[in-house]
């Protein structure tokens, strides 16, 4: 297996990031969204300081992770929601865990105390990944929205930093 490293996401990564995003959406277990946003919308909705990509030694972008603020209220400045997507051809190689570990380090260094996510209960690989990375299940939001014409639940996950007070 080629060495995989993390680096900050840049605008030059836009096409590949959005292609991986769309591949995840096409799989039907990643998000209520069905079409990846434009780069401008993606860029506007995610915190620039906490966007990472995983690349192999040939420079191929294999996956990405990014966070969005959960609220504009100052009291929630240390709470973010994240998304992680890996190219289907690179799944099962530890790329998502590498990205998640990098994000945890990045957010903790910035004083962020909680990372949260909402995952479809059927996405057992994502639930297992998050559990291994120290996330806990907060609860299930039942029938929270429609996806391809049917109601779907989401499992709410969070990781509270043990080092950020």
From TrEMBL:
It comes from the Bacteria. CDD domains: NAT_SF. Pfam families: Acetyltransf_1. The keyword Acyltransferase applies. Keywords: Acyltransferase, Transferase. Residues 4-158 form the N-acetyltransferase domain. PANTHER family: N-ACETYLTRANSFERASE (PTHR43072), UPF0039 PROTEIN C11D3.02C (PTHR43072:SF23). This is N-acetyltransferase. It comes from Micromonospora gifhornensis. The lineage of its organism: Bacteria, Bacillati, Actinomycetota, Actinomycetes, Micromonosporales.
């Amino acid at each position: 297996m080629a060495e995989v490293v993390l680096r900050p996401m840049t605008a030059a990564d836009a096409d590949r990031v959005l292609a991986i995003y769309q591949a995840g959406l096409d799989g039907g277990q990643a998000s209520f969204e069905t079409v990846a946003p434009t780069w401008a919308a993606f860029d506007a909705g995610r915190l620039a300081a906490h966007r990472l990509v995983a690349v192999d030694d040939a420079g191929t972008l294999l996956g990405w992770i990014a966070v969005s603020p959960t609220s504009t209220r100052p009291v929630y400045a240390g709470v973010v929601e994240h998304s992680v997507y890996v190219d289907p051809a690179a799944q099962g190689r530890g790329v998502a865990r590498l990205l998640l570990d990098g994000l945890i380090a990045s957010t903790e260094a910035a004083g962020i105390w909680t990372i949260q996510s909402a995952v479809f209960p059927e996405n057992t690989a994502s639930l297992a990944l998050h559990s291994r990375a120290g996330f806990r299940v907060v609860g299930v939001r039942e029938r929270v929205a429609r996806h391809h014409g049917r109601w779907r639940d989401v499992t709410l996950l969070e990781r509270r930093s043990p080092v950020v007070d």
